Amino acid sequence: MENVHILAQRTPSRGDYIPFATDQYVSQAPEQPNTLVEKLQTTLEVNGILDIFAGYVKRITDLAGLQFHSSQGLFQMHQSDNQLKPYTFDLELNGQHLGQLVYFSKYSLSGTIRARLMQLHTCLLYPLRNALMYHRVLQLATKDTLTGLYNRSQFNEYLETKLERSRRHHRNFSLMLLDLDNFKQVNDKYGHKKGDEVLIEFANILTSSIRATDAVFRFGGDEFAVLIDDPAFTTNKVIAERIMDRVNECNLLAKHEVTTSIGFTLASSQDCSNEIFARADGGLYKAKEAGRNCARAV
């Protein structure tokens, strides 16, 4: 691969940068491509790779923002300004479509600059592919594969973190446990595929009912949990009522007569994880005893 020349002086008639040889820019000359590859291989974080790559691209053209769109989500460089005109490039490796790399710049990208960027993409492909594979492994380890919610192992970590913060900052939080009423009959009558559809719909209801500071988990089967920043029971009650209303309004769940029972408790800095869970589970048991399709606090 040929060396990448410094492109620094903008020519308005071309709308881009052209080679501009001065001592200032010679001293900032980019490393050889193999050096860039070595730097990109120092991290398996996709955002970190984009930061390294963006630093290199900035020596070639004016760059305000850089994003990467893939099936695993959206990633971007630190402090990416995405308000300017986007320039999109598809990234493929051995016939596999990795995603789209989007540059944001206040200047147009000429054919020369586009060609330079595409040369640099060859340095980016393998490190980026490896980072995506690593990200996928982490997702499989921490996420429920059916619903995309955090799994039980992540719940345990989140709960311990919440407790530690509660002890340090004396800030209470709530634990909510939920399961689906009449869910077994859906699997028995219509099969597990329909049951999976019900679980996914319920997971969507949960994620749409909470705030950005809260977190939802699936333990397995039809058992779910929500950790809520809540200095009093007020927030917890509002979220519980919102969830039950949306379940009752959902056509799919209503069709199969599926509702939800909820138990919740307010944690404090004096609690341990087992005590918190036992109280919330007791609230769930009370909701079942009360006829289901309701919420009870302990």
TrEMBL record:
User: Sorted alphabetically, which Pfam families does this protein's record hold?
Assistant: GGDEF (PF00990)
Q: Which SMART domains match?
A: GGDEF (SM00267)
Listed under GO cellular component are:
plasma membrane
One molecular function GO term is:
diguanylate cyclase activity
What Enzyme Commission number(s) apply to this enzyme? 2.7.7.65
Cofactors required: Mg(2+)
Say which enzyme class the record assigns. Answer: transferase
Identify the residues that the record assigns to the GGDEF domain, covering every copy. 171-298
- Renumbered to this chain, the signal peptide range is none
Tell me the SUPFAM superfamilies matching this sequence: Nucleotide cyclase
Which GO terms of type biological process are on file? cell adhesion involved in single-species biofilm formation; negative regulation of bacterial-type flagellum-dependent cell motility
The protein, known as = diguanylate cyclase
Ranked from the top, the taxonomy reads: Bacteria, Pseudomonadati, Pseudomonadota, Gammaproteobacteria, Alteromonadales
